[in-house]
Amino acid sequence: MSDETIFTQIVAGKIPSYTVYEDETTYAFLDANPLAPGHTLVIPKEPYERVNDMPPELAGDVFSTVSKITDAVERAVDAPASTIAINNGEEAGQEVPHVHCHIIPQFRDSTTKPVHALFTGAELSAEEMETIAETIRNTQ
Ligand code: AMP
Hints:
By secondary structure, the protein is an alpha+beta fold. The chain has one domain: HIT family, subunit A. Helices cover 29% and strands 18% of the residues. It contains three helices and five strands; from the N terminus they run αβββαββα. A five-stranded antiparallel sheet has the order 1-2-3-5-4, with helices on one face. The longest helix is centred in the middle third of the chain and has 21 residues. The radius of gyration is 17 Å and the shape is globular. The relative contact order is 0.17. The model has no long low-confidence stretch (mean pLDDT 94). Adenosine monophosphate binds next to loops.
């Protein structure tokens, strides 16, 4: 766990933010560089770096907050949908080392793309798929 991330300072009120939600364990505020109107970040108050580092209960709290506020975020900017995503680790594009879930409103005439557009795709045989699945099952 890192101690003073920029988001920890936001939770502590040391850095101003457009706060939209707060409870005992989570906090949500508007992204300072919005990719779309209403772009919101939901974070755990404790500065865990990655989703994998969080206790499952806290991860549940974060997703519960995402679930609670997404409708309000979409309605605030009259968006019919949103992309909900987490850059989990530096190689995945994570810049702030404090878990944050992006809620990014999407619009009917939007030129933005689904998360599938981030990847070129992987060709895997059935055997490779089974090996990967088995490894995941056995290392939880
Ligand atoms: P990521 O690339 O997933 O780590 O995203 C980090 C996000 O944090 C970016 O979208 C930034 O615009 C946002 N951000 C950084 N500093 C602040 C801040 N002080 N207040 C609100 N959002 C911020």
